[in-house]
Amino acid sequence: MQKRSLIVNQFIQETSLTVVNLNLDVIDDLTKLAEQQFALLIQSQLALASQLQIVKNNIRVNHFKARFAQIVSGLGRSWNFRSAR
Questions:
Q1: Other beta carbons within 10 Å of 65
Q2: CA-CA distance, 61 to 69, in Å (whole number)?
Q3: How far apart are CA 44 and CA 52, in angstroms?
Q4: Burial class of residue 47 (count of CB atoms within 10 Å of its CB; 0-12, 13-18, 19+)
Q5: In three state form, how does the secondary structure of the chain look?
Q6: Which residues of the chain have pLDDT under 70?
Q7: Residue 80 to residue 76: CA distance in whole angstroms
Q8: So what's the pLDDT on residue 75?
Q9: How many CB atoms lie within 10 A of CB 35?
């Protein structure tokens, strides 16, 4: 059996990004657009969290009303559950 040499060639390709001055305005506009969209996303997430808290509170109130129906009916209509927070 004859031994043979193994030759391994490794090529590394470096990528480069060239920004042409003509594209700087476009890049700036796209950056501003991305920032505006991100701000809108954050606002919608905050609104969603607020709505979720309202739903959770309504579930708690409805659970209380269902569990203690006799007490609630005895209090009359003048008592407002929202003011109990």
A1: 13
A2: 11
A3: 12
A4: exposed
A5: CCCCCCCCCCCCCCCCCCCCHHHHHHHHHHHHHHHHHHHHHHHHHHHHHHHHHHHHHHHHHHHHHHHCHHHHHHHCCCCCHHHHC
A6: 1-2, 6-8, 10, 12, 17, 19-20, 72-85
A7: 10
A8: 63
A9: 10
Query: In angstroms, how far is the first alpha carbon of the chain from the final one?
Result: 89
The answer to whether 27 and 19 are in contact (CB under 8 A) is yes
Residue carrying the six token digits 């607020």:
50
Question: What is the model's pLDDT at position 85?
Answer: 46
Contacts of 81 (CB under 8 A, 6+ apart): 61, 64, 65
Q: How many residues does the chain have?
A: 85
Show the tokens assigned to 40.
Answer: 């809108």
